[in-house]
From TrEMBL:
InterPro entries (alphabetical): NTF2-like_dom_sf (IPR032710), SnoaL-like (IPR037401)
Limits of the SnoaL-like domain: 10-83
Organism name: Microbacterium salsuginis
Domain of life: Bacteria
Protein name: Nuclear transport factor 2 family protein
Gene3D superfamilies: 3.10.450.50
Length: 110
């Protein structure tokens, strides 16, 4: 299996989910960072922590990045997700701000 080379903040995001480390997950984001999960937007460290608790780490999530592309500060991934909330493949878009994530969006599938 080929290992993808992801920008450090994205790799921290994935590693934090897979190791159930909420503090490391939140630390991957800027202070005003956000998660946009199908239009439900949670902002700031409190919002990011809330999403981690309800939809990711608190739901026993495991994330496998299947493909990734980087264009400047935008990282697009396609990933497999297994949790108590959702199982399946999705796309994700990260906006980076230096060594942190300014935003992570899971766009709705139409």
């Amino acid at each position: 299996m080929t290992t993808l080379s992801l920008p450090a903040p994205v790799q921290q995001f994935v590693d934090a989910i897979n190791s159930a480390d909420t503090d490391a997950f939140v630390a991957a984001f800027t202070e005003d960072g956000f998660v946009d999960d199908w239009g439900r937007v949670l902002r700031g460290h409190d919002g990011v922590r809330s999403w981690a608790g309800s939809d990711a780490i608190g739901a026993g999530a495991r994330m496998t990045v299947l493909s990734a592309s980087v264009d400047g500060s935008t990282v697009r991934i396609h990933f497999d997700w297994r949790s108590d909330v959702f199982n399946g493949e999705s796309d994700g878009i990260f906006e980076l701000d230096g060594d942190r994530i300014a935003g992570f969006t899971i766009p709705p599938v139409h």
